[in-house]
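[step 3/7] inverse_fold.run input=structure_tokens len=167
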């Protein structure tokens, strides 16, 4: 569906804002797909930890972004013995939160610090047009929290020094 700017300008201002919002969401989705594709690997084999992984047939990946779900074809790799597959695109894009992009995971984590998962789901639907369940958001927050726990020791966090007493 195309955007007719003349019609948009003739509509109510609110309707025009909604059309601009929808257009920005589509642009965000397309640019995110292009960014994901730029991180794809298409080599016949990969060497990972002294093991050779072989490219499998391309398959569809479904990813949650701040602009909604995007779907694209990407390659998986597996050893000749089978077992776990690797997805270089997901590794290169830091998709360590399952199907969520880092920006979405960061935003959800920030919002969940002050609201329930149900409230965050409503907020994302209203402000970004992104429909995610409260259960999905809860699992996403658990994944982000687990990464924080794993990295805690490496961060060397220290408590701030107490301020000097006021005279």
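[step 3/7] decode complete -> sequence:
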């Amino acid at each position: 569906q195309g955007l007719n700017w003349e019609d948009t300008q003739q509509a109510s201002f609110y309707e025009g804002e909604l059309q601009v919002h929808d257009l920005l969401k589509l642009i965000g989705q397309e640019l995110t797909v292009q960014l994901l594709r730029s991180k794809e690997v298409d080599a016949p084999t990969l060497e990972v930890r002294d093991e050779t992984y072989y490219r499998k047939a391309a398959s569809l990946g479904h990813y949650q972004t701040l602009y909604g779900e995007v779907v694209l074809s990407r390659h998986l790799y597996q050893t000749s013995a089978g077992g776990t597959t690797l997805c270089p695109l997901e590794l290169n894009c830091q998709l360590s939160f399952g199907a969520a992009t880092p920006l979405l995971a960061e935003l959800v984590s920030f919002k969940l610090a002050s609201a329930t998962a149900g409230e965050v789901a409503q907020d994302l639907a209203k402000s970004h047009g992104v429909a995610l369940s409260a259960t999905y958001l809860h699992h996403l927050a658990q994944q982000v929290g687990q990464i924080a726990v794993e990295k805690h020791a490496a961060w060397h966090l220290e408590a701030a020094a107490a301020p000097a007493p006021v005279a």
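[step 4/7] annotate
The radius of gyration is 21 Å.
The mean pLDDT is 90.
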